[in-house]
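Comment thread on ticket #2218

A.B. wrote:
> Attaching the input chain for the structure job we discussed in standup.
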Amino acid sequence: MLIPEFQRLQDLLASFLGQPKNPVSDGCLQLQFPCPKCVEEKGKGEVAKYNLEVTLSKSLYSRGGLFKCWSCCSVDDEMQGSVYKLIRKYGTTDILKEYQQTVNEIRNSGLYKLPEYQSILGENENDFCLVLPSSFTPIKNVDRIKKQAKEYLEKRHIDQGIIDKFGIGYTQWEEIKPSYRNRIVVPSYDAGGNLNFWVGRDYTENPKRTKYRNCDGVKKSDIVYLESKIEWDADVYIAEGALDAVFCPNCTAFLGKTLSKDDALYRTIYDKANAKVVIVLDADTDIKETKRIYRLLDRGRLRGRIRYVRMEAYKDFGQAYEEGGKDAVISIIQNQQTFSEIELLI
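C.D. wrote:
> Ran it. Output below, let me know if you need it in another format.
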């Protein structure tokens, strides 16, 4: 007998997609809904076609299930993939949070660990699933959050526009994991809209606490930070730190590590970047490291399109934005340079 969690998942989806053609049952975890994109583009007559298929028995733990619109996925890749992506696109933050909580309840339920349910779900219960901290709360109004968190954001000049663009939230003392408590959290999503990383910055300014606490279980070399925000036909900037990237347009980050040919960031930039790629490392980073990354990228289809910026007046984008706002950031990225072949050899 199917317990109520799957009914709750269906109801959450129905809250923004409309009622499914068929309800969940012991023998069916595949639902058909009206496709919101089809309805938007072709009119209300599309409601009766139920083109959108949601399968809760595939990748439930890692991606919330899978969805696909059989009508428009062939011309719009956004209309297939993770159910979490579907909720971010057409639902609300509150729906997504409750949906993820329900999936975790199913994962942790003793009943769903029985063989008959494992065969239905068709997924290893130990598959890694990255989630935001348990107390993560989106910042919908910066004036209504905890005083210390508000003061930190104001100090860094992180306004509501930046918060909304990157889906920034915060954690509080109620957070289950102590090291995740009282942090400003910047989530990162991949090209498919799936959470691939998050970074938490302490806002209490307690000298005994680690300033930054990243998510567990993710190798930085396996992800492209803020990938869902990158426009590959425009100039792409690569900063050093995670927070630096939110202050610069069309920017990703090395996440404080180096870059190699085996990294997802390298492969993605090489395959997708169609304009200039600009390296912007912190002021205290040796110029030799900038040259090494420059040489690594300046080849093949990227040849001649690599630039670098040397930080001088500020230590990084974060300090530049804090002290000089957008104008300071623009001034930095306008000062792009190239290395000559001789300079790269020195």
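A.B. wrote:
> Thanks. Noting for the ticket: The longest helix spans residues 317-334.
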